[in-house]
Specification:
130 residues; alpha/beta; Nucleotidyltransferase, domain 5; 5 strands; 36% helix; globular
Length: 130
């Protein structure tokens, strides 16, 4: 079990990692979406609204993050903000543990973990640890 967790997601896949800040230990898993790949079809839609992300996909990601005390959401803008809104509306206890939202294009597992470690080292210096 890890205190810190990071999820990098886009509309197709999510990669979740738990890690320690020393750099010696991490765990990871991947979750795939089963939604159509083109979610933004505002033009030509009857309602004039963007299509929203796959609810089952976002719920699976939320379940994958359930054991972490502090969470960082990373990834391209649309997926990050849709997921953050999803957990705010449907998983408020999880949303309360989200410490930040980091813009990050496609990255390797190592780059994601390194960015999250850096983020949490800065956060841990400025917030009381429980």
């Amino acid at each position: 079990m890890h205190f810190h967790g990071v999820v990098w997601l886009d509309h197709r896949t999510a990669r979740i990692f738990g890690f320690d800040l020393r750099g010696s230990d991490h765990t990871g898993r991947q979750i795939a979406s089963h939604a159509p790949h083109h979610l933004h079809h505002k033009s030509g839609s009857a309602s004039g609204e963007h299509a929203h992300g796959d609810v089952a996909y976002y719920d699976a990601i939320a379940a994958g993050l359930a054991d972490f005390r502090e969470i960082l959401i990373a990834g391209p803008a649309a997926a990050r903000t849709e997921f953050a809104a999803h957990i705010r509306d449907r998983h408020p206890a999880l949303a309360a543990r989200v410490m930040g939202n980091l813009a990050m294009d496609h990255a390797s597992d190592g780059e994601i973990i390194a960015a999250a470690r850096t983020f949490f080292q800065q956060i841990d210096r400025t917030t009381p640890q429980k």
